[in-house]
Specification:
The complex is a heterodimer of chains A (587) and B (101).
Chain A lengths: L1 H39 L1 H12 E2 L2 E2 L6 E2 L5 E14 L6 H9 L2 H4 L3 H12 L4 E5 L4 H10 L4 E10 L7 H4 L1 E2 L5 E3 H5 L1 H5 L3 E7 L5 E8 L7 E3 L3 H17 L4 E8 L4 E8 L12 H4 L2 H4 L9 H11 L7 E4 L3 E4 L2 E4 L5 E4 H6 L3 H11 L1 H10 L28 H6 L8 H12 L3 E2 L5 E2 L16 E2 L3 H17 L14 E10 L6 E14 L6 E8 L8 H4 L1 H14 L14 E2 L7
Parallel strand pairs in A: 3-11
Antiparallel strand pairs in A: 1-9, 2-9, 3-4, 4-5, 4-6, 7-8, 9-10, 11-19, 12-13, 12-23, 14-17, 15-16, 18-20, 21-22, 22-23
Helix pairs in contact in A: 3-5, 10-21, 13-15, 13-16, 13-19
Chain B lengths: L7 H59 L2 H10 L12 E2 L9
Classes of the chains: A alpha+beta (587), B mainly alpha (101).
Chain lengths: 587, 101
């Protein structure tokens, strides 16, 4: 009996040892596995968990507002919800995609956009934008659908309440509210602010359960432009009408206050709506005022006249024989638009005689003339605070040919931008001083006084030369010469017309049928309040001279703007019929 | 074993202390609850202020869009039948020739 008991006891002991051994092995396995997971692979696995469960999107700060000189809103960022989709690892791709497809009609999702989202779901991307910056109404409709994985993030969308107005000055922003062109691009650092960061935590089923702002975004600062909304509207309306009526390729107008260098309006046509940036046509996006180089033609005679007067090499009583109506220089024949007989120096410029101006150029000489062109800052940017400004093309003196002096004196063999020509005319308007252009202000001009803080000025020609040029030449251009269509009742206008032949891209030579018509001037001549350049490219309705196409646009714009600025006529207006009280802007 | 007999004054004092402690505790809890409640209200009001500020911005932008000069001109021309003054139809009431005194 005892033997039997001993044998049983031994069996039990043996089984106990085996069982204990197995339990030991099991625990050992578990321990090793835990050490592997918690110690050896800790950092990798923690990283994977964090990647699965948390997302730290950047919070784009609210972009600063762009205001015109009177504080009117030109561009502002407003809250707009963006829809995103959070994928789930446990759910088939097709099921997830089906939920996104339910938004197709609400969000007008294209097939291309849907394919993009589907590809990202397949790639197991944890966060996918479905559509950014939608309307609050659409967001509410989607919210009511209560779709799993679909959520919203509040962003900001840029609005331009004035539509196409000043589009080329304002520019536009990309989908992330970063400046892409115009003032939006140039002043992006000031406008965009400092981004913040948020933290979103998801549960195992990818449902967000925690949202936290880790770093508050710092909103961007406002930007005040020197542009005046009303003047810009007057300019754009007149420019658009002129380009359409003349069936021209494009046109541009810049209107400035010459005494401060502030740009009051800058327009190019065709234009675009910055609310839908970028525009479908890249041509519409070009700011022609600063980004297009062209041979100026006769408006460049401003420099010839200034050089002649400043050097003292030409006297106002000197005469030039223009009776042949043409002149031959090194095998190149240059014509006048009509035979004009013998003209004095002012008459040469007043009637825009190429033959006479070339003779004036000969008197000045290449060195003096080159120096004067340089002094007027051609071949370099004006420094306006807008992106993409062109330098123009101004060849160094050593590469001038035998025809270069003649060509330059009448505005050929040199390419300029519209703003460079306006800068040259502003030097005359400011009695010989260069005042740099600017397009931003520190504070709004709420009184409408048009007063600007003092600007740096640099003397280019003497006050005497500038005064003589205004009195004897540029006022007469409008009174008796080629710019008569720019005359304004009650005001003396000083200016210069320009009609340049354009090179036909097809033939590579000057075309008799392609012209660039321009007029640059200022008013009132004795104490300028505004200066303006009007450029119309390739007008096709019969008329093509600057005096016929561009000067009337100057007159139209200047008349309205002077009225708007509360400027009383300086000379007796010719007609008085209906009374209208001239209300001061400061009232 | 002799049970200690408390005097009535002692009992009242003890009861008073307990009641006072309960009152202080109740007040403290009420105070904390009120603070939390006010915190919620303040938070909501701050949210409302932010929301109203955003609304003001939206309305200002809408106003700017509605007062855009092309829209004003369209209404003036098409609804009010206004037109531009013709050549010479404007005279200036404050106009003085340079020689006028």
């Amino acid at each position: 009996m005892n033997e039997i008991n001993d044998s049983c006891q031994k069996r039990v002991n043996k089984r106990t040892v085996i069982l204990t051994f197995f339990f030991f092995l099991w625990f050992l396995g578990l321990t090793l596995r835990l050490i592997q997971l918690q110690v050896i692979e800790h950092s990798r696995l923690k990283g994977a968990v964090v990647k699965q469960n948390e997302y730290k999107p950047e919070i784009i700060p609210e972009r600063g507002t762009i205001l015109d000189r009177r504080g009117e809103i030109m561009a502002r960022s407003l809250p707009a919800p963006s829809v995103y989709f959070v994928t789930s690892d446990d759910e088939p791709t097709e099921q997830q995609f089906a939920r996104v497809q339910r938004l197709k009609n609400i969000l007008d999702l294209s097939d291309k956009e849907l394919q993009r989202i589907k590809a990202k779901i397949k790639d197991r991307a944890s966060f996918i934008w479905v559509k950014r910056k939608i309307s609050p109404e659409k967001a509410e409709t989607i919210r009511r659908l209560n779709l799993n994985g679909i959520d919203f993030q509040l962003e900001h969308k840029r609005y331009y309440p004035l539509g196409t107005l000043a589009a080329h000055v304002l520019g536009g922003v990309d989908i992330d509210d970063r400046g892409a062109s115009g003032a939006e691009f140039q002043h992006n650092a000031r406008l965009e602010g400092v981004p913040g960061q948020s933290l979103i935590l998801w549960d195992g089923r990818k449902r967000p359960y925690h949202l936290e702002v880790l770093k508050e975004p710092i909103p961007g600062q406002d930007l005040i432009l020197t542009i005046d909304e009303t003047i810009q509207y007057i300019v754009e309306r007149a420019l658009g009408t002129a380009v359409r009526e003349n069936r021209a390729q494009w046109g541009t107008v810049i209107l400035s206050d010459p005494s401060s260098g502030e740009i009051l309006a800058m327009a190019s046509y065709p234009a675009y709506d910055p609310n839908f940036f970028p525009p479908s046509s890249p041509e519409a996006q070009r700011n022609r005022a600063i980004q297009d180089n062209f041979e100026p033609g006769s408006t460049f005679k401003i420099i010839t006249a200034a050089a002649a007067t400043e050097t003292g090499l030409v006297n106002f009583h000197d005469t030039f024989d223009c009776s042949a109506g043409k002149i031959k220089v090194a095998g190149w024949t240059i014509y006048d638009h009509k035979k004009m007989g013998v003209l004095t120096f002012p008459q040469v410029i007043i009637h825009s005689s190429n033959v006479g101006t070339i003779q004036v150029g000969f008197r000045i000489g290449p060195e003096n003339f080159y120096k004067m062109i340089k002094n007027f800052r051609f071949g370099e940017k004006t420094g306006i605070e807008l992106p993409g400004e062109e330098n123009g093309i101004f060849h160094p003196l050593k590469s001038w040919s035998k025809t270069s002096l003649s060509a330059h004196s009448i505005g050929y063999e040199i390419s300029v931008t519209a703003i460079q020509i306006l800068q040259a005319m502003n030097i005359i308007a400011n009695r010989g001083c260069l005042i740099p252009f600017r397009i931003t202000r520190e504070t709004p001009d709420l009184s409408g006084s048009m007063k600007a803080s003092s600007s740096p000025r640099e003397r280019i020609i003497s006050e005497k030369s500038a005064n003589e040029l205004i009195d004897h030449v540029f006022e007469k251009v409008v009174l008796d010469g080629t710019g008569q269509a720019a005359q304004l009742d009650g005001f003396t206008v000083a200016g210069k017309t320009g009609t340049a032949q354009r090179i036909d891209p097809a033939t590579g030579s000057y075309s008799a049928g392609m012209h660039l018509a321009s007029f640059v001037g200022f008013v009132p001549a004795e104490r300028p309040v505004l200066s303006m350049i009007v450029v119309i490219d390739d007008p096709k309705v019969g008329l093509h001279y600057g005096g016929q196409v561009a000067a009337p646009v100057f007159r139209e714009i200047a008349g309205r703007v002077l009225l708007y600025l509360g400027q009383s006529p300086k000379i007796d207006p010719t007609k008085k019929m209906v009374t209208a009280q001239l209300r001061s802007i400061s009232d | 074993m002799v049970r200690k007999k408390y005097q009535k004054k002692e009992i009242v004092l003890a009861a008073g202390c307990i009641l006072l402690a309960i009152a202080i505790l109740t007040f403290y809890i009420w105070h904390q609850a009120a603070l939390v409640s006010l915190g919620y209200k303040t938070g909501k009001l701050e949210q409302d202020i932010l929301s109203f500020k955003e609304d003001i911005k939206i309305l200002e932008t809408e106003k700017a869009a509605l007062l855009a000069l092309d829209k004003v001109e369209k209404i003036a021309r098409e609804k009010l039948n206004l037109s531009e003054p013709k050549e010479g139809q404007i005279i200036y009431e404050d106009f003085r020739l340079p020689d006028d005194k």
